[in-house]
């Protein structure tokens, strides 16, 4: 069961974005949480 390339790219991008966000902002703000919820939706 191989994920479609787009799905894999999306997952990788989300993980990368989360890592960068965490490095910049150790404490997530309400805006960050809202953005992450929208990204995963």
Automatic annotation (TrEMBL):
GO BP terms: actin filament organization
The protein's name in its UniProt record: Uncharacterized protein
Gene Ontology CC annotations of this record: cytoskeleton
Domain of life: Eukaryota
Pfam families xrefs: Thymosin
Family: Belongs to the thymosin beta family.
Keyword Cytoplasm part of the UniProt annotation: yes
